[in-house]
Amino acid sequence: MKKIRIVHGTLMYPLEVGSRALIFEEGRYLHTSKVIAIHGVTPQQIRFETMNSHYCLLAPSSPVAADVPVTVVEQAA
Questions:
Q1: In the chain, what are the domain boundaries?
Q2: What are the pLDDT digits (tens) for 8-60?
Q3: What number of other Cβ atoms are within 10 A of residue 9's Cβ?
Q4: How far apart are CA 47 and CA 26, in angstroms?
Q5: Cα 59-61-64 angle, rounded to 5 deg
Q6: Alpha-carbon distance 48 to 5, whole Å?
Q7: pTM higher than 0.85 for the full model?
Q8: Residue 22 neighbours by CB under 8 Å, 6+ apart
Q9: Distance from chain centroid for Cα 13
Q10: 23 alpha carbon, distance to own chain's centre
């Protein structure tokens, strides 16, 4: 079973299936394993899955911030 990780941070470049995500969280950089699926994108959160974990990425200042800029690149399956 994969871990579920809730992260308050900022994507450093567009999220892309087949690539690792780079997230800036609390003064440090988090590199994920390869992204295998993007499950949902809203102004409040980005839900995606890597080879090792399920992620829920929330805005660093507030988990319900309305103006979170999000850029997502999805590859065709």
A1: 3-73
A2: 999 999 999 999 999 999 899 999 999 999 999 988 899 999 999 999 999 87
A3: 19
A4: 19
A5: 55
A6: 10
A7: no
A8: 11, 12, 13, 29, 30, 31, 32
A9: 10
A10: 7
